[in-house]
């Protein structure tokens, strides 16, 4: 009797090749769900003008979508450890789509903040859900490359959004960008729910596993916070995600105010920086599959490169239009590209059976920086009428994280902990 692939979850003898389909749809879902939020920075001039916003208020719009995930990512991680990521991620992306479409009718700034809170609640499932789906299909020798490709979806979606949304805002008003963002997110949800299947070894029901007591589950999860790898994950993640969102919020404004570039050309530089981030997430993550000093060594390289790039922006070099554009592309490559090796390091450091929670925990800590960084750098700019304090704060945060975690990494290599390449450990 001929087997119907639809009744077997799509698994046939070509299952090993299906992982590339999974990678493609997870990347597309990531790009689609993050399309609008990653493109908001390119609309900064339009939003400030049409809604009469200060730079701090503009930064708060970015933060609104990141407030709910402070708790929501932990909940999403637990759901992913218990249920099929196909539905957890898909339903979350549908919430993003519905909220954005409703947001197109928002009467003003406060209602927009509330809409973006709901967007953040839906988006909680997308990052850890997509990461877990890809990690479960690829072994350690290819996991870094696969995770890098998947994580490239975020800056890829951002680059496309930065190219499209300002044009829509200028031609049809800012409300049209919410509608388009919602439709793109809905398309991503439909593709993921329609095509994603778990690996055959995980395709069975999850409820058959014995449940540990609530006390032992809490103890195990709190114990993860004491692990050296968790400390490195949190410090590096919060510093680099602050850089990423600082670049998103300030790039167009900086180029417009400091180097006298027009709004259109400045937005194109942000597109180029996002494109560099796409390349960075793939290249740096693939490099981490083979690097002698492991995944975290690649993350430390990104921190050092970010410090150098932002320091250069604070010198007279940063006032030259050509030099500033090159520096923002550099910051795009390393300031966005770090996420590929970083999230792979998170999945490989997680205890067995707790990958979803580990991803949710790491990303929830990052959300603190996502919520705080945009309004803080915007407020610094408003108070000082200069971008230098904002760049300086981001440099200091990253330098402290690099110094602390580099010391711990050297100690770990000396003991043989986390020093080998994850690829070699997985073979």
Structure explained in plain terms:
Keywords: Membrane, Transmembrane, Transmembrane helix. Its main location: membrane. It is a multi-pass membrane protein. It is found in: Cell membrane. The chain crosses the membrane at residues 20-40, 60-80, 87-103, 109-126, 152-172, 178-196, 233-255, 261-284, 296-315, 321-345, 357-377, 389-406. The chain is mainly alpha-helical and 427 residues long. The chain has a single domain (17-198, 220-426), classed as Growth Hormone, Chain: A, CATH 1.20.1250. 80% of the residues lie in helices and 0% in strands. The chain contains 20 helices and no strands. Helix 1 (15-33) runs antiparallel to helix 11 and helix 9 packs across helix 17 (339-349). The longest helix has 31 residues, at 228-258. The chain is globular. The two termini are 38 Å apart. The model is unreliable at 1-14, 204-210 and 413-427 (pLDDT under 50).
Strand content: under 5%
| CATH architecture label name | Up-down Bundle
For the biggest sheet, the summary is: none
Look at the structure and give the CATH class.
Mainly Alpha
Q: Fraction of residues in helices?
A: over 70%
**Secondary-structure element pattern, one letter each:** HHHHHHHHHHHHHHHHHHHH
Number of helices: 20
Instruction: Look at the helices and sheets and give the structural class.
Output: mainly alpha
- How many structurally independent domains? 1
- Report the span from N to C terminus: 38 Å
- What's the count of strands? 0
* CATH topology-level name: Growth Hormone, Chain: A
Look at the structure and give the mean pLDDT: 79
Low-confidence stretches: 1-14, 204-210, 413-427
Rg, Å, rounded? 21 Å
Q: What's the shape?
A: globular
CATH level-four homologous superfamily name: MFS general substrate transporter like domains
């Amino acid at each position: 009797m001929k087997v119907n692939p639809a009744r077997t979850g799509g698994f046939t003898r070509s299952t090993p090749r299906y992982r590339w389909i999974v990678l493609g749809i997870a990347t597309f879902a990531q790009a689609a769900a993050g399309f609008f939020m990653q493109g908001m920075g390119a609309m900064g001039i339009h939003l400030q003008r049409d809604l009469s916003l200060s730079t701090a208020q503009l930064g708060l719009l970015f933060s609104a979508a990141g407030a709910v995930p402070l708790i929501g990512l932990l909940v999403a991680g637990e759901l992913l450890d218990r249920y099929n990521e196909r539905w957890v991620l898909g339903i979350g992306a549908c919430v993003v789509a519905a909220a954005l479409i409703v947001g197109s009718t928002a009467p003003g700034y406060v209602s927009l903040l509330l809409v973006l809170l709901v967007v953040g609640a839906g988006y909680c499932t997308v990052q850890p859900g997509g990461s877990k789906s890809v990690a479960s299909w690829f072994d350690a020798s290819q996991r870094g490359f696969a995770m890098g490709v998947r994580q490239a979806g975020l800056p890829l979606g951002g680059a496309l959004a930065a190219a499209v949304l300002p044009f829509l805002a200028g031609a049809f008003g800012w409300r049209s960008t919410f509608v388009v963002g919602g439709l793109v997110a809905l398309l991503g949800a439909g593709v993921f729910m329609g095509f994603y299947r778990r690996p055959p070894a995980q395709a069975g029901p999850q409820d058959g596993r014995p449940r540990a007591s609530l006390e032992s589950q809490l103890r195990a999860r709190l114990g993860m916070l004491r692990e050296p790898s968790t400390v490195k994950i949190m410090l590096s993640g919060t510093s680099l995600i602050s850089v990423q969102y600082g670049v998103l919020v300030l790039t167009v404004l900086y180029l417009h105010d400091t180097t006298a570039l027009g709004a259109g050309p400045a937005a194109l530089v942000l597109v180029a920086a996002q494109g560099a981030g796409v390349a960075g997430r793939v290249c740096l993550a693939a490099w981490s599959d083979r690097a002698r000093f492991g995944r975290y060594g690649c993350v430390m390289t990104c921190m050092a490169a970010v410090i150098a790039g932002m320091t250069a922006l604070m010198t007279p070099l940063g006032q030259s239009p050509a030099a500033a554009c090159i520096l923002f592309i550099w910051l795009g490559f390393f300031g966005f590209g770090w996420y590929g090796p970083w999230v792979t390091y998170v999945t490989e450091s997680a205890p067995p059976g707790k990958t979803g929670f580990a991803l949710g925990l790491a990303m929830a800590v990052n959300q603190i920086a996502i919520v705080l960084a945009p309004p803080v750098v915007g407020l610094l700019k408003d108070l000082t009428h200069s971008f230098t304090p904002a760049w300086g704060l981001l440099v200091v945060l990253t330098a402290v994280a690099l110094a602390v975690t580099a010391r711990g990494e050297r100690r770990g290599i000396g003991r043989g902990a986390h020093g080998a390449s994850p690829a070699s450990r997985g073979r």
